[in-house]
Structure prediction request, 192 residues.
Amino acid sequence: MSEINKSKKREFTLTSLAVDNATSIFLLTFMILLFGVKAYQDMPKEQYPDASMTQIFVNTPYFGNSAEEIENLIARPIEKEIKSITGLKKITSTSVQDFSAIVAEFEGDVDVDLAVRKVKDAIDKAKDDLPNDLDQEPSVKELDFSEIPIMTINISGDYPMDEFRTYAEDLQDKIEDISEVSRAQMAGALDR
Prediction:
């Protein structure tokens, strides 16, 4: 009866091979694990990888005007031209006293440089409808995460401005000496 039962059982050859050669299978598994860890360590990684968002910002200052005038004189003509760009997903506009901010969001597959060019071309078309006495041209900027500061350090104290600036410059040099820091920028210091 036992011989009949043995002949009726099916055998999975891969499992039988693994059981029969346990040492070889253990070594093979260990080598795969070792090579996997080594490959992971050698893989290039960035702590802050480049991530581009397809959002373009158009900022236009026009001093001495109310939010309603900014909307009518600045935002609407620019929006009208930007809306005609292909690949545009959404446009958002904010008008406050003396300032207009427009955000044009594009589809994810649109090239950011191409989108910036198209927005600049649209603003050039809208210039005929903008006021002639603009102090500054509308500025077009893309959102670039690599330009956003990781850390901001504020210093203050009861020191003369020359001594304070010298201290700030020394601190800036020490921060730039750190190998992981690409740039340290000082702002707010008064020049003679």
